[in-house]
Amino acid sequence: MKNKWLFYALLLIVTYNCNSSKTKKLTIGLAMDTYTEERWKKDGQFFEERAAQLGATVIRQVCNGNEQLQNEQVENLITQGVDVLVIVPHNSKTAAKAVNSAKEAGIKVIAYDRMIKDCDLDLYVSFDNEQVGVLQAQTLVGLAPKGNYMLVEGSATDENAFLYNKGHMQILKPLIDSGHITIVMEQYCKDWLPIEAYKQTQNALTKNNNNIAAILVANDGLAGGCIQALTEQQLAGKIPVSGQDAELAAVQRVIDGVQSMTVYKPIKQLAYAGAEAAIALAENKPTAATTRTINNGKKEVSALLLAPVAVDKNNVKQTVIADGYIKATELKMQ
Hints:
Layout: H1 2-23, E1 27-32, H2 38-53, E2 57-62, H3 67-79, E3 84-87, H4 96-104, E4 108-112, E5 123-127, H5 129-143, E6 147-153, H6 159-177, E7 181-188, H7 194-207, E8 214-217, H8 220-232, H9 248-256, E9 262-264, H10 267-282, E10 292-295, E11 300-306, E12 309-311, H11 317-321
Helix pairs in contact: 2-10, 3-4, 5-6, 7-8
């Protein structure tokens, strides 16, 4: 009789442990850089939406552009026992410290949208950022094949800024070498601040007596700063300006003709892919097929890269509106 009850007791313990392991939710630590720009709020919302659909919990931290705080937040996520980490780094180099801490704790790490340099990263999920720069430059060269160009690039702490620039130069270099285009200003903007782009545009217009053929701008926030400076000189709509992120205000500027284009990156696709990859890594399952590897200074990192889309006034309805990224009722269509 005693052995019989011992058997049932052991059976209950095993059954409880099995059921507990089945019901235990995976926890994803999501360390984000900022919510200042419109797109990042959507990234966070879509990421959590997909994680919830797959039965995972997300603990989200936002460092508001403070790289030291971001590393501290990642340490906190590790202490909380997250199963996997997804990081949108403020600084692509200093975030390596956070990755190293996670790896020491046996936690896998994904760099989301921005690469993290010089560390043992497990996966990079982003858009083809070099292609973003190509699309921007192609559009502007089509509108202004000759003349003085300004290059208003992103933050020098963001690896993507250099990839956009690489894409820009892929298109511009042959025209520079032939003498058709002259770069009169090429500057990176601290922390992607529009005020930096505004000041740079003011200075370039002054130094060149307003003789600027095009302004190649890395994102929509910076484009807004450039266009403010152009407006003050009554040049808005007369000089082509690029952008990126398909922010509502930028798409309206595209429709109004004061911004030539923006680059739409289907954020929902990226966020869903990031959440799916995080869960797969945590469960030691294969992730979605990666498109290629990218060297981050320490290793060849498997990269899942999605395709960006150029948006101008001719395809707004077929792109951002058709996808539901922006509602037609939010725009004043001409």
